[in-house]
Amino acid sequence: LGSGTNPDNWPAGWDGNYHNHTNVSCDFNAAGYRLPTQAEWEYAARGGLLTNHYTYSGGNNLWYVGWYGSNSGYESHPVGLKDPNELGIYDMSGNVAEWCWDISYTTRRVVRGGSFDASTSGCTVWAEDFGEATSIIYYFGFRVCRNAP
Hints:
alpha+beta
């Protein structure tokens, strides 16, 4: 766009064109916060180097590690009420599906982790979904990361 990094300074209507959302860039060497890549998300969800190769982030029984269709009442819940994974990270399976940086299907960003209205198969550490970057979907959320200093 050539209008800087603040969306408030971008031309009116910039977000009406889905292709503008794929033109946004990220400096992966910067120290700031950003969406994780799909690979970073999965590495964290699987427990990093401490992985026990669970089906879900933190265990093989989703009831204990995540909010999903059968135990959530079809609504999100405060973070940390279920068991964490090997890295001490909560809610990477279920609760809200999380945006990743990666783009697939031309203009659709990857979403990982499943949500409070997903089936068990949608909450596995390898399951993925997709959404237009301009979508407002009630069960999508995000987690941020940054490079280690």
